[in-house]
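Sat 14:20. Reprocessing the chain from the morning session after the first attempt stalled halfway. Input below, unchanged.
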Amino acid sequence: MSALCIDFQREVDDVKGSLLRSKSGRSKSSVQAVGPVIAITFLQLAGTSRAVAQQNEKQLGWADQAELALVVTAGNSQTSTLGFRNVLSRVWENAEFHFEVAGLRTESATITRTPVGSSIEDFVIQEEKVSTLTAENYLTRAKYDRNLSQRLFAYGSGGWDRDEFAGIRNRYYGASGLGNIWYDREDARWRTDYGLSVTHEEPTVGASDTFAGLRLSSDLMKRLTGNTTLENLTIANENLEDGSDLRIDTLTALAVAMAEHLAIKLSLRFLFDNVPSAVESPLLLPNGVLTDILVPVPADKLDTRFSLALVVDF
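Finished this time. Tokens:
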């Protein structure tokens, strides 16, 4: 817009110069040409301003974004990974609602081929396949924002997730608070919010726990080019009963549009839990014998997930 204003000011200066020159004895035809120049310049600036405003104006109504990632190998080794994520959104003039469902499941199979027969020339192959689940996690969450002013909003959110490999069989939460709207356009968006939460955890090992927490989040979207968009969603929750129990979930994604409703998205997600839940592992004796005794072992504090997904926008 600043560039447009500069161009318009230059045109006005040119007009002033023409008028001054006309007073010095120039012909009336030069003065008469000033009017069309002003009109054309004004129309060009007005049209460009309207186009920029329409491009930056946020879109109202329903929207849905579905992501799917699938990796399959077969033959001497068999693995399959399925990842999905769907975000359903409804945007009003002064409010918005988002509902997300996501999951990841990975299986691998060990194939053992054993020759059974009387000699190396007389045998048959017996094949045994043992499948193992190596990763599985799911989540669903919803959030409603209601604008209180141009820069302030109130929100309510809730969700559920499961990750037994991280020691969580079920985790439920609800949160409410206030947030700031730093900018909210079609090409750029940034919101931060701050509130209180209540979390109920059911670990795979040990007793369930319910606690109050402090929740902070940041939701950022920036269109880098005409077909490239950068997104980041970061959520932090601290247990108010145990200050060392801090969890951070951050998702960064880069989407490149290939068609009007089709894109490829690269995503990197970090899940940090400063006080992770425990998982059971069999006890290994010093002599190398693996026993049936299960021992609670703290899970890793950090999980990292990288994915390449096909995205369809509705």
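The chain has two domains: 2-56, 61-313.
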